[in-house]
Design goal:
The chain has two helices and eleven strands. By secondary structure, the protein is mostly beta strands. The chain has a single domain, classed as Jelly Rolls.
Length: 156
Amino acid sequence: EIWVMPGELNDDYQVIFETGGPSDGTAILMNSFMLRFLHSTGGVNTLDLEVPFTLINPSDFVQILLTLDSDNQAANAYVKGSAGGAISASATALIGVPNGRASLFTWSGFGGGADGALGGTGGTAPLGVTSFKGSVGLFKIYDRALIEAEADEAYL
């Protein structure tokens, strides 16, 4: 779970979180239109979950709560705006364990660029990926995948 207040949003994706690498990893990206939740296992992008900001104003604090459930091969995204609005999305996908390091708001640059480093991409990162330009209000990691009712309870 992370609460962010985006800074300058445009068409380019900003890295909120990433771990692992393009082969076995996960990334959370945001632009002015949507949140993207990427995951890869065995060198293949197995999840590209898009959550459009149709009901949320991303210019104020946004709560992002994402779950990966490897037992059930499921991914869930719950996004709420502090100024109102909520949206959720889910998908089934091959969920493996990310390897390596974790980074908040940037990526490490292994391999010379986002394609060679950004977690969850399967080797091809979205064009124009940049570091996060905003503020963080809260960051929590849970030891299990939350269900929707628990995600609602997590909303401050």
